[in-house]
Amino acid sequence: MSADRRLPSGLVTFLFTDIEGSTRLAQMLGNGYRPVLAEHRRLLRSALRQADGVELFTEGDSYFFVFTDPAAAVLACAEGQRALAAYAWPSEQAMPRVRMGLHTGFAQAHAGEYASAEVHRAARVANAAHGGQILLSEATATRTRQLPDQTWLLDLGLHKLRGFDGQERLFQLVAPGLARHFPRLRTSEAPAHNLPSAITPFVGRAGERAELSDLAARQRLVTVVGSGGAGKTRLAVEVAGELVGQFPDGVWLLDLATISDPGLVAFTLMNTLGLRPEPGKPVLDTLVEYAAGRRMLLVLDTCEAQLAGVRAVLAQLLTAGRGVHVLATSREPLSVPGEVVWRIPPLGLEPGPGAERADSVALLIERTTAARGGRVPAEPEIRSLGRVATRLDGLPLALELAAARLRVLSAGELADRLENELDGKAPDPLGAIDGTALALGEPSGRHATLQATVEWSYRTLPPAAASLLRGLSVFAGPVDLQTVEWWVDGDPLDTLATLVDKSLLQVGRDTGRSEYRMLDPIRAFAARCLTAEGEERAVRDRHLRWALHRLERAQQGADGRPVTLSMYSLDPLAGELRAALRWCVTGGSARLGLRIASGLDQWWRERGLAREGRLWHFRLYSRLAETGEHVPDRELALVYYSHSMHACADGETSEEIRFAQRAEVAARRSGDAGTVARVLAGQPGPLVSLGKATEAEQLCRDLLAWAGPREVTADALFAIYNLAELLWLREAYAEAAELLATARPVEALRPAERGRRTVDLLLGMAALGRRDLVAAHDHLSIALRSRMSYGFHSRACVAVSAMAARCVLGGENEIAATLFGAAAAAKARLCRGPGIFGAYWTTQQAACRAALGDAAFDAAWARGFTMSLEDASSLALDIEAPRRVDHELTVLLDGVSQPESS
């Protein structure tokens, strides 16, 4: 029978097979390769001929068969693979791994062969397969019906076959006894990457993307380091997608979170690159040989899961050729030579250049819009989203979880939950948002909640580092190295390095000194661990002692002696002192809490927080009733006195009187004359508020007469101030100035009062009353400069108003109107009332308006209202002082036209 008659024509199925890695197998087996090859031929020929396959040729390790029945051809391939797998080969490495490709099409045999493109298509299908894999073209798959049970075709998608236009859909035969999992197909124009497609839009980080993209293109190994949920993976994938065009051999992503053993890192990477192990050759050698001469980018995600395995692979892979670049993500550095560590920052809380919104707020808006069916939040709610972003420190995972919460809460309600205390305890971000448990596509589940993602890192900490993390969770803000050294009572550098490397602490150096900061979600987790370990009471009591010590040190110099009190020295401590107070009212010492509240006496009022100070006092009284702690009468008197001053600043006259009386009772009970003088010096204030100026003046005179013989006049300094103000009110300017002259040396000896320069302020007011602008300018400038220098902002408002009045009297009305506007704005921000000089300010503003006209006055006043207190103070201090000669002439002329009343 002729060859033409032996070969089928028409619709036929072509099969190509060969041994994967045959050259390597032959080198390894040497003379043993021939019998292996022969057995391989025998087993395959037997299986294929039983299905009526016609053998066209055998060349080396390759076969070319043709079939008339596609289904029979497919099943014959499966039998051939099972026969090869069942045979007793000399060793497992000696087993030949055969790849098979089938394609069905119309072809005509001629002279014992086929001259058809369908043959070439079948060959290309076989070339795309891996050893042990059976691939079918769509033409063969659609004609393969009635497969046995548990045998089916797996759709591998569309692929480009070399030399053919368009794309071919390929299928893999899945059957009992056959391998199921293989690397990506070896198509000639395979995708240039395996990066996942984003489900949600990538928001923000324009600067970070540009910086990281430049680094990854220039540096061989860049590790993106950050805490869990910081957005490392999303940013790395986004940057890698932008770099696809720069790496002709592809960009390949490997997630190490799913790998259970360090030894599997190299194998999984090889699988990702479409490689198979070669018989008798180490996997790493195969990777190194493949990488040599190629330019590609490897994106290794979640490296902290298999640090040892990653280090071993990179140590060899990066030496294979300069074309291999690695972009890694990890919670700690890889510590591999040549590594560039790039720490990912949280999403921005302030708008970047040219941006309308901060990145963190923009992310919340986008996700909230999606969660609510496309309804964009209104502007008032966007402001609340800004509060949410700030409370969550811009941590992307936390923001995603928060956005999911916004399906059932308004932004304001969520912000309140994140900011406000619950049962007297600090706000808990984990409790507020963790119930949403997003499905973020993490096979390990480590990013389902904030609790899970932080615990992932916490479990890897050595005991000393875990203990320090729990301890630092009680601090409200960053801590410096000196504080950490005090906390651990030793050298903390190794422990700190562990926490920083694992991204549980962030290092800041903006002040020139290292500060260690914990993101709020991490702090909340560590605080939970602190409670679970039964350490909370001891650790929070220790933090309370530290806070008290720092409060005392803020009022002392390097030699331990008192220095002029500055509000600026207390500003950085506010968060820690509030944390200590919170513990005092829930589980700590009420007495120590009252000591902190008294230590912040002036700070509350100077920062416009008198109401907050009052609330802390009330809560501490309640705690004191619970604990029954004894508080010495002297301490209690000063606490009540401080409370009365807060009430005065808050306009609560009845509360002011009530606590002033309590302060007097406790002070007299203490028997300390200085304490009695101090609390009595504050009592004229409510009398003036009640319109009893005469009684108030007499009280001041009686107190000063009582204090002199007892040598406690310094403690009665406020009585001098109050008496001078009362004298000013009834225009007894000369007597007020004489009294204040006696107070100057007393004030200079009082570190808590001298920074305010109240004597100069009141001397300036007395000079204004006498229309002595030269003296007024000098005294008011001194008072304003000192008050701003030491952070007495509330009292600086009085000095700015006084300088405005000085400008009115000097004819500088436009500047005066501007300063009045600035003072009004600052008073509103600082919740400050008009004070004892309120009527005088009103009179001077009216004179200024009359001089300028309504339009000019209002314009200047509005300009001032937009100024900061710092800018307004600078403006006031830049005013040129009046010259003595010109001033005397002005006073003379003014006196002729309008005699001064005395």
UniProtKB/TrEMBL annotation:
Domain Guanylate cyclase: 13-126
Keywords: ATP-binding, Nucleotide-binding
Residues spanning the signal sequence: none
Pfam families: Guanylate_cyc, HTH_77
Keyword ATP-binding: yes
CDD domains, per the entry: CHD
GO molecular function: ATP binding
Record has Metal-binding as a keyword: no
Record-linked SUPFAM superfamilies: Nucleotide cyclase, P-loop containing nucleoside triphosphate hydrolases
Name this polypeptide is given: ATP-binding protein
Species whose genome carries this gene: Hamadaea flava
